[in-house]
Amino acid sequence: MPDISKALGLGKVYKPVSFTIAEADRSSDDQTPNFVEVFKSALGEVNSLQYQAKQAQIALATGADDVSLHQVMVVTEQARLALDFTMAVRNKIMDAYNEVMRMQI
Amino acid sequence: MRLFRTLEHSASALTAERFRMDVIANNIANANTTRTPEGGPFQRHLAVFASRLEKGQPAGVQVLGVVKDQTPAKLVYNPGHPDADANGYVSMPNVNVVSEMVDLISAARAYEANVTVINEAKKMVQTALQIGK
């Protein structure tokens, strides 16, 4: 059904990513941030969400005027989802590492 | 994070509905108030909402403020009332408690609907984390 996928703009959105090993190797010497930096900044973001959630909970518990219950709940849920996501990434990395370690040479 | 945009939009709606609930509660509380600092009986308040834009993108709802219902006050014949005029009529607030109750339920249901959206958005993220498990 070419018409439907065209109407939905599928071809436009999901362009196949062309990615070669030569391109991946270059990341070490040019300006592309490497994996450790990306992971560190993502962890920092997750940490700041946890911190925000905690601050909101403290503000609610101590009776601050500008914090309502649903805001605290939403921020807490955001922090939880971010942590879940981090754990998913971490598990994937550990799986990949274990896979490599089991490799027979 | 882009992941949480839905949550933020729904959270703004929760804040707005909460505010509407506050306004309705105030209206019902003052349904029989005949004296206000501005003089005259209490006038019904209405919350005004506006859609919010952030960098040209829709980003939930915001409370613009509160306006007063300009419907004239109800005149009730009650000569014994301290605020009765020379003919014995008292200007009572233009609050109709029945319609306030309807608004109250509508605000509560709208709040509920937004909580449902939040829960579904959360489930969506959690389902996405199940990919490849």
Written account of the structure:
The complex is a heterodimer of chains A (105) and B (133). Chain A has helices spanning 2-7, 10-13, 21-26, 35-61, 69-101. Chain A has five helices and no strands. Chain A has 105 residues and is mainly α. In chain A, helix 4 (35-61) packs antiparallel against helix 5. Chain B is of the alpha+beta class. Chain B contains two helices and four strands, in the order αββββα. Chain B has a two-stranded antiparallel ribbon. In chain B, strands 3-4 form a two-stranded antiparallel sheet. Chain B is elongated, with a radius of gyration of 21 Å. Chains A and B meet through helix 5 of A and helix 1 and helix 2 of B.
Layout: helices, strands, pairs:
The complex is a heterodimer of chains A (105) and B (133).
Chain A: H1 2-7, H2 10-13, H3 21-26, H4 35-61, H5 69-101
Helix pairs in contact in A: 4-5
Chain B: H1 5-29, E1 45-54, E2 57-68, E3 74-77, E4 89-92, H2 97-129
Antiparallel strand pairs in B: 1-2, 3-4
Helix pairs in contact in B: 1-2
Using brief descriptors, characterize the structure shown.
heterodimer; A: 105 residues; mainly alpha; 5 helices; elongated; B: 133 residues; alpha+beta; two-stranded antiparallel sheet; 2 helices; 23% strand
Report the sheet-strand fraction of chain A.
under 5%
Strand order of the largest sheet of chain B: 1-2
Order of helices and strands of chain B: HEEEEH
Number of helices of chain B: 2
Secondary structure tally, helices of chain A: 5
- Secondary-structure class of chain A: mainly alpha
Strand content of chain B: 15-25%
Low-confidence segments of chain B, given as residue ranges, are none
Low-confidence stretches of chain A: none
Helix content of chain A: over 70%
* Biggest sheet descriptor of chain B: 2 strands, antiparallel
